[in-house]
Amino acid sequence: MNLLIDIGNSRIKWRAAEQRRLQLGDAVPRGGQDALQRLKTAWSSLPAPDTVLATSVADPASHADLQALVSRLWRRDMQFLTSVPEQLGVRNAYPIPGNLGPDRWAALLGAWVRGLAPCCIVDAGTAVTIDVLDCTGQYRGGMIFAGLGLSRRALTERAHRLPPIVDGDLPPLATDTVEAIRLGTTEALIGAVARGVQRCRQQHRDLRLLVTGGDAELLVGSLPELEPQLHADLVFQGLAAVAEEGG
Questions:
Q1: Residue 137 — very low, low, confident or very high, per pLDDT cuts 50/70/90?
Q2: Which keywords describe this protein according to UniProt (predicted)?
Q3: Residues annotated as binding site for ATP?
Q4: Cβ neighbour number for residue 59 with a 10 Å cutoff
Q5: Is the predicted pLDDT of residue 31 greater than 80, yes or no?
Q6: Contact (Cβ atoms closer than 8 angstroms) between residue 16 and residue 25
Q7: N or C: which end of the chain has fewer CB within 10 A?
Q8: Whole-number Cα distances in Å, 101 to 105, 107, 143, 236
Q9: From 59, 77, 103, 134, active-site residue
Q10: pLDDT digits (tens, 9 = 90+) for 188-243
């Protein structure tokens, strides 16, 4: 069994995997002892993993508590995925391969090992990334912009009198400020993704659209004309393949 961890900007997600088959898992908000306690409770029931492999967009200094927990439970070291020039048949387009975010690299690997290329991968989290992988395994490049939560925080963090923004049905047009922010940021996300995918498909034909990340279901439901496919576990599928190959 391998333990796979995805340390994002706002959550720590994990899955157990056996020979690339994803099994149980969970997600906890990042930060604080509560997150560590929840992980400890969940992981204490697992057998000792052969490999603990993580991808992280967080500051490496923030990994110490998580690494200590893994060490206490199983006397294992956490390994961290890094983007390299070539892996599992996928070739990196970045001039400095390590500058490509490891979560993006893992999603590319996941799409490739599942036979989903050529594809356009939209990962809609705190940041939204759009990446293109061609039918030969060549990563062609992509784009990054602010995700839904980040856009909303940017608009509200200095407006102290605004109540929290709570998701719900969207009105055709908003008649108060909170609703206006919720509607505007949602439409901005949908529009930016649609335009980004259109740009990718102009450059590379016959791209399957794969959507993952926290706001994936919103995008899949909002962009039926683009024929999106929900693939919630692309990052973990890439990590599972790397772990099974021995890192």
A1: very high
A2: ATP-binding, Coenzyme A biosynthesis, Cytoplasm, Kinase, Metal-binding, Nucleotide-binding, Potassium, Transferase
A3: 6-13, 126
A4: 7
A5: no
A6: yes
A7: C
A8: 6, 10, 12, 15
A9: 103
A10: 999 999 999 999 999 999 999 999 999 999 999 999 999 999 999 999 999 999 99
**203-231 per-residue burial string, b: 16 or more CB within 10 A, e: under 16:** ebeebbbbbbbbbbebbbebbeebebeeb
Nearest Cα to Cα of residue 42 among 56, 54, 22, 24 = 24
Residue 95 φ then ψ, to 5°: -60, -35
If one counts every other C-beta atom within 10 angstroms of the C-beta of residue 182, the result is 21
| Residue ranges of the binding site | 6-13, 94, 101-104, 123, 126, 177
d(CA 44, CA 46): 6
Q: What is the rounded radius of gyration, in angstroms, for the C-alpha atoms of the chain?
A: 19
Domains parsed from the chain with CATH numbers = 1-115+233-247 (3.30.420.40), 117-230 (3.30.420.40)
> Using the 8-state DSSP alphabet, how is residue 82 labeled?
-
Q: Which residues are annotated as a binding site for substrate?
A: 94, 101-104, 177
Q: Which residues are annotated as a binding site for K(+)?
A: 123
The sign of the dihedral angle between the CA atoms of 154, 176, 219, 120 is negative
pLDDT tier, 114 (very low <50, low <70, confident <90, very high otherwise) = very high
Position 67 pLDDT exceeds 70: yes
103 included as an active-site residue = yes
pTM confidence score: 0.94
Chain position carrying tokens 């399957």: 208
Q: What is the dihedral of CA 191, 123, 110, 19, to 10 degrees?
A: -140
Average pLDDT of the segment spanning 19-33: 87
- ∠ CA 27-115-210, nearest 5°, is 50
